[in-house]
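hey can u check if this looks right to u? its 587 residues, i copy pasted from the old doc so theres a chance i mangled smth
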Amino acid sequence: MAFQTPITITKALESIERGRYVLPAIQREFVWNPRRIERLFDSLMRGYPIGSFLFWSVWPESIEQYKFYDFMLTYHQKDNTHCAPHGVITQDEITAVLDGQQRLTAMNIGLRGSYAYKLPRLWWTSPDAFPKRHLYLNILSQAEENEAGMQYDFRFLTPKEAGLRDDTHCWYRIGEVLKAEGAVGLSSLHKFLVKEELGNLDEPFEILTRLHQVVHTEPVVAYYQEESQDLDKVLDIFIRTNSGGMTLSYSDMLMSMATAQWKNLDAREAIHGTVDELNSIGDGFDFSQDFLLKAGLVLGGVGSVQFKVVNFNHGNMKLLEERWDPITRAVRTAVELVARFGFSKASLSANNAVLPIAHYLYRRNTPVGFMSHDTYSHDREAIRSWLIRSLLKRGIWGSGLDSLLTALRSIIDTHGGEGFPSTELEREMRTRGKSLTFEEEELEDLVESKNRIFALLTLLFPFVDVKSNKFHIDHVFPRSRFSTKRLRHAGVPEEDIPVFQDRANRLPNLQLLVGEANESKSDLMPHQWLVKTFDTQEASEYAKNHELGEVPPHMTDFNVFYETRRSRLLGKLRRMLGTTGHNRSEP
């Protein structure tokens, strides 16, 4: 490996554009956000070092053995986050970037491409949520004081934003400087300033001249070149090189090993495609590459499920590829089952809790009709109960995760032939200090919780059909009624107002309500809503089923309602979760 003569940004981007610089499949995705790209260009303008790069010369006899990807050019936070596979390579030799992908991609997007990220307060499905932005430089003044310490005012802007001009802002789209090569290019920059009526000012011309130097004349891309065609050596270099800076995670290393060693599947496409599919199930989840790779280790039977390089050997990777289809099928079914329980990314507080369920389904080869047939209703309920209690109990899916997953896998392998072995799982968890039995103090905390509400409500009220109805977590006494103004108007004593407001979003004032019913309820007081919606008998049954008791008609009686329902819910939690509860698994 030898250090080469540094090159300019222009030359590097030309190589990217012409397909001479590519990304090996062992590289991960582009992960820089707009602020980091802006800081990179600020560093370049100030002459700060940006680190060296590591390139790999791939010779003709090696090109066909590996898969390569193009650099990201038009990043879209929703629709375009994955680098596209490189087409047929016609060059005799290409250069694969082993270290420096993020920096080169940032230059490529900043000078040649665009970055579309989501605007706050807009839905992901809105067509206006992701406006295309290009990188601009303010040539009239330096950046305002900022935490990043930036001197130059680089920003990703829409054309409309960039068109706003005042005494301290004139935006130059920096991609235009690529067209301004040599002396002729400098002349074109001056013409731009004249057009903007800034031709007689020194600072704007100095800023643009500096940008021109950074892009066209200064050799800022300093790099080493690796010539070896030995994949094992290249992979070792890649992993070691990516151990600092924006670190390469162990799951990234596993992705690299799988991509390099799988023979029949494209690991990168298989993993990303499955993750995207999992996250589209039900109302959506937030599973990651790490989750799916961990699932591969757990379900694939790899001895240790830790993300350590020693576990990413040829044998394990071969095993993972051979079992990939049944593994992902089981994981997909487990996520579908969890979605049928009503969970989504907003309520599933520990994604890894799905892994023992997936392994159980993998070992049983998911019987036909498992998701809906009455034959398996008891099994589904055992899974649901175990999942909910493991999510409610703090610390279950935190420290010691890998050893816990390995132990639970062993229990399932031994006892999971006929049904979900919740009793045996809980016994094993207890021996590891992760009991699913709740002490009185924990129950007191749960009953007044503002968190884990969905899990609590589905545990307390399992009759609510969350799988076939759009349900909402509804405030029994409407949230809008708890403003200081409305509480005063309702006659609530001033000293009680803070207590009312604190209790508004806690469990005793919450219930699961079908979406249509919740929309019709709107701002109605609960007593008024019950009278309007049900006849007397139905209202009484509804209140009984939801542990509402005698619902008072006036806001001033909210605290009485809260305390009464809190007592009922606490008693129910004691029976379900406490040390004398029927779910306790005795050794």
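The CA atoms of residues 227 and 278 lie 40 Å apart.
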